[in-house]
Amino acid sequence: MSSEPPSAEAVFDTVGAAYEDAFAGLPTQAASLRWILSQLAESDIKRAKIVDIGCGTGRPVCSVLSEAGHDVLGIDISAAMLEAARARVPAAKFEKLDVRDFNPPAASYDVATAYFSLIAGVTQNDIREIIKKIFGFLKDGGIFVFSTVPLDAESADIHWMGNPVRVSSLAPEAAVAAVKEAGFEVLFEEVSTFTPKAEEAGICKADQVWEETHLFVYAKKPAAK
Hints:
Elements: H1 8-15, H2 18-22, H3 27-42, E1 49-53, H4 61-67, E2 71-76, H5 79-88, E3 93-96, E4 109-115, H6 124-137, E5 138-148, E6 153-160, E7 163-169, H7 172-181, E8 185-194, E9 212-220
Helix pairs in contact: 6-7
């Protein structure tokens, strides 16, 4: 019997659309979306080109940003999540794609978001390289919002909301450093806690849920001099 945990794709296909219910009402995410919209308004960008990496069901990120009139692409590895996203957020576009295989032209996006999507099925080096890739495809002055569960973990096998999964992450200081080392200017960082409503969403039992530490980072690609 293999000791390998299920792939990240299989885990998120299992969780499916219930993920949205488990994380509904996350105040730090809502605040970050308001910040993105305010930054775009200040820059007078009427129709920004945005990619949400690990978009899940498309809500709230793709829905909020597309309803504000922006051109939004959500990418995810989970077919189940994307099926829900296409039904729930018809104004956005969605593709089944691993961010490691996402290679848009340089300086082609105004905004990139990665909410808790650089954890499952990646290595610490992957996280750093993906952040560098994001820097490359953002325009000068482009916005990046990154959130994660900040731990010093390298390919660790854990149980997450009742599901075995292999994860990697960076401790808070290392995660912020990775964003800066990619070339971004970090404008805001915050560590908070949140307990997913996974039992209420029907994902797992109450004793399989715990309070998570969350790191949110708001960053900008410096404008060309």
